[in-house]
Design goal:
heterodimer, A: alpha/beta, Rossmann fold, 2 domains, six-stranded mixed β-sheet, three-stranded antiparallel β-sheet, 11 strands, B: alpha/beta, seven-stranded mixed β-sheet, five-stranded mixed β-sheet, 15 helices, 41% helix
Chain lengths: 432, 365
């Protein structure tokens, strides 16, 4: 076993997955309720150690002493359900990719920090679910997606919206409800869209059949595309998710069911919600892959494998094991059902951005100066986007009755006291 | 079990019945054939159109509405689903978001309650939520309203439920012309449309004009139809209640009262203009529906009149005839009393007309 980047390899993976596998499992006592997810219970099997090669062992291509490409092994082995072969564990990483993934993850982190602050300033209203900690999931999946591929997710979608082509200012302005928002301020945190991105969805689990339908459309049109249907460990218990698995399998639809397992459905831990917390196995006949969702390269590799699989064989389930640093939403401090120590531990030892940055520096793909330059650029972009989101104006009131229908047949829409509104048609929609 | 019973009930309910003037029309068409031919036309017209639902393909449709379509269009266009309404309604909606034109059949709308989240939250709201970016061209269709002998869970009208929601269009055909024209219009519409058919009407043949079989025959969504002109009182109804209304109008005619019967055809948009125009003529109005009264279609019509100048045209209060405010019982006699009958409508009309009815009756004598 190689054991080089010890900081990464000794990290405490989200505990609950491992508790089940610990050889001297002694947590059944129930005495440690307050700390039942505590680190003292985790005794990882040796297979979790040393899976990360450093630059010395990795295949590194160098030009003028600067690495342009490297081959690395993913952080943790994939776990497979009903699959003989899984994704590649040795993956290539070019300098351009390293720059891109780091920039994207850092942008999402900054974007969410800005959103959190805007919420605290009471400029963002209502819902605001932050993705901080889970960046590697989205960036890894996006890295594998082709132009013909689609994605639909739940309500934690600021990062995805940005990855699918909306500028940070488009996202933040949507959150502050101004007209420069990607849905002109009419959708808010959970309802953002862009081409090939069928949105956030505020109804837990509803996006899974919808994404399956997008996949049906891909197959129907024969365009070679597929759809990623994302949901959390909470939505994984929704009946309609299983309905979607079932039909996707019967009809061999090109859909990847991605369970982003951040270990808590609001405040309910996976053990308290699911009889089987191995979400990658819950598709029954559908094959599944467990992925370290804190490792952008692992997520990318698994998604590449999955894209090929769903386009040639049929749907599968992919569980990305990840962690959210913030509470469920802004009203949740996120500390009543888990310990501050647990959050700190993950931040220090498994953070997807820090670990990737250190890997890239170790491999010689990125220099400390380059990282610094990206950080500055991202900070500037997000600061500008924040300023825009604070100063842009809301839509005029007439937009209240604009674009209710793609083809409005109502002679008048009703206002609060009478039928006095003439529907305004500004857009027809992509499917008109 | 329940489903096969439903099919039996539908078959037993088939009967040739028409309140229109058969003799004048050369052609007859059942509501089932009207729907079937509408689907056939639109499947042929647009590759993006497909039918998805339980038993729509190999079984030929639980009520045989899709008879022959699977053989003609194959697995890709006519898709049998497992019995999972929420799942397939969501899949159909997702396919519509991604550019297809699904017709999502519910074996009955009773089962669509399992899927109502996708109809309202996923289909109806997406266009608005996306600020006009993503419209959802989908049709949700199937039999709605009270059937016969199938008890409470399988006998109810969802017109008011769906019509409550902005973003949806809701149509409720009565006869073959309605069924064919409205379904074709719904499939071509860029917004989500709920088509509330009536199981008890599927086997009923109606005379149709020559234009009805035209490939591009459409009934405009949002427009009501005057089924029978009259000057004394307006009766507004939809779906099978139009039949009851026409029969009541015939009874009233015997008493010298000329009732104008309006077939709403669409529940949302509601064609208030046609109702208002009629009331300005008759000055009396009753509403008829087989759904429950509270917050129902009739209640909405009452409110519309109250808020319009037409209110001052009324010579008497508007009166609602609706299903009795109880779940539907199984027993035959109780069931028959649970829905507004012809005599109920006549009674309501006479009550609303008051002294005028007496004058009309006297005049007729």
């Amino acid at each position: 076993m190689l054991r080089t980047l010890s900081r990464v390899s000794e990290l405490p993976i989200i505990v609950k997955q491992l508790q089940k596998r610990s050889h001297n499992n002694n947590i059944a006592s129930g005495k440690n309720n307050n700390n039942s997810y505590g680190m003292q219970h985790c005794r990882y099997s040796s297979s979790f150690f040393g899976l990360f090669q450093n630059a010395a062992q990795a295949g590194v291509t160098k030009t003028n002493n600067y690495a342009t490409e490297a081959t690395v092994k993913v952080n943790r082995p994939f776990k497979l359900h009903r699959l003989d072969e899984g994704p590649a564990e040795e993956v290539k990483l070019t300098k351009d990719e390293a720059l891109r993934y780091y920039t994207q993850m850092q942008t999402i982190r900054r974007l969410e920090t800005a959103a959190g602050n805007l919420y605290k300033e009471k400029i963002i209203r209502g819902f605001c679910h932050l993705y901080s900690g889970q960046e590697a999931c989205a960036v890894g999946m996006k890295a594998a997606m082709r132009d013909v591929d689609n994605i639909i997710s739940a309500y934690r979608v600021h990062g995805w919206t940005y990855l699918m082509g909306v500028s940070p200012s488009g996202v933040l302005a949507e959150l502050t409800g101004v007209q420069g928002g990607c849905a002109r301020g009419k959708g808010g945190s959970m309802h953002m869209y862009s081409p090939n991105f069928y949105g956030g969805n505020g109804i837990v689990g509803a996006q899974v059949p919808l994404g399956t339908g997008v996949a049906l459309a891909c197959k129907y049109k024969g365009n070679g595309g597929m759809c990623l249907a994302l949901y959390g460990d909470g939505a994984a218990n929704q009946g309609q998710v299983f309905e979607a698995y079932n039909m996707a399998y019967l009809w061999k639809l090109p859909v990847i069911f991605v369970c982003e397992n951040n270990n808590y459905a609001m405040g309910t831990s996976t053990e308290r919600a699911s009889c089987n917390t191995d979400y990658y196995t819950r598709g029954d006949a559908l094959p599944g892959i467990w992925v370290d969702g804190m490792d952008v390269l692992a997520v990318r590799s698994a998604t590449e494998f999955a894209i090929n699989y769903v386009n040639t064989v049929g749907p599968l389930v992919m569980e990305t094991n990840t962690y959210r640093y913030s509470g469920h939403s802004m009203s949740d401090p996120g500390t009543s059902y888990r310990t501050r120590e647990e959050i700190q531990e993950v931040r220090q030892k498994r953070d997807p951005i820090t670990s990737f940055k250190e890997l890239c520096i170790e491999l010689g793909l990125l220099s400390a100066d380059e990282v610094k330059a990206i950080d500055l650029k991202v900070r500037k972009e997000i600061d500008e986007a924040t300023a825009f989101s604070k100063t842009d104006a809301e839509l005029g009131v007439s937009h209240l009755w604009t674009d209710v229908y793609s083809n409005c047949l109502e002679s008048k829409l009703r206002g609060t006291i009478s039928y006095n509104l003439d529907h305004i048609q500004e857009r027809k929609g992509v499917n008109h | 079990m329940l489903r096969s019973r439903l099919v039996q009930a539908a078959c037993s309910a088939q009967r040739a019945f028409s309140t229109s003037q058969k003799a004048l029309a050369a052609k007859q068409m059942t509501v089932r054939d009207a729907l079937n031919s509408a689907l056939d036309d639109e499947l042929a017209r647009d590759d993006r159109v497909f039918l998805i639902g339980e038993e729509v393909a190999q079984y030929d449709g639980a009520y045989k509405v899709s008879r022959g379509l699977w053989k003609k269009y194959g697995d890709k266009r006519i898709i049998d689903t497992p019995i999972t309404e929420m799942g397939f309604a969501g899949i159909a909606t997702g396919a519509a978001m991604a550019g297809l034109r699904p017709v999502c059949e519910f074996m009955t709308f009773n089962f669509a309650m399992q899927a109502i989240d996708h109809i309202i939250n996923s289909a109806a709201k997406t266009f608005y939520m996306s600020a006009g970016a993503v419209n959802v061209p989908i049709v949700f269709r199937g039999p709605n309203g009270a059937a016969q002998g199938v008890a409470a869970q399988h006998s109810q009208c969802f017109a008011a439920w769906y019509a409550h929601c902005p973003g949806l269009k809701v149509v409720s055909p009565y006869d073959s012309e309605d069924a064919r024209g409205l379904l074709k219009a719904a499939i071509r519409d860029p917004d989500p449309v709920v088509v509330l058919e009536n199981e008890l009407m599927y086997g009923t043949a109606f005379p149709i004009g020559d234009n009805v079989t035209d490939k591009d025959f459409l009934v405009p969504i949002g427009k009501a139809k005057i089924m029978r002109p009259g000057k004394d009182i307006t009766i507004v109804a939809h779906s099978k209640a139009v039949e009851t209304s026409l029969l009541a109008a015939a009874e009233l005619a015997k008493k010298g009262i000329e009732a104008e019967v309006i077939n709403l055809r669409s529940i949302r948009p509601l064609d208030a203009a046609t109702i208002f125009a009629s009331v300005r003529k008759t000055h009396h109005l009753i509403t008829v529906e087989n759904g429950w009264p509270q917050h129902g279609v009739g209640a909405e019509i009452c409110a519309r009149i109250m808020e319009d100048q037409t209110f001052f045209e009324l010579d008497a209060p508007v009166w609602r005839c609706a299903g009795v405010d109880v779940p539907m019982p199984y027993a035959k006699t109780l069931e028959a009393h649970a829905l507004p009958r012809v005599q109920d409508l006549v009674e309501a009309a006479l009550k609303v007309l008051g002294g005028k009815a007496g004058k009309a009756v006297a005049g007729a004598k």
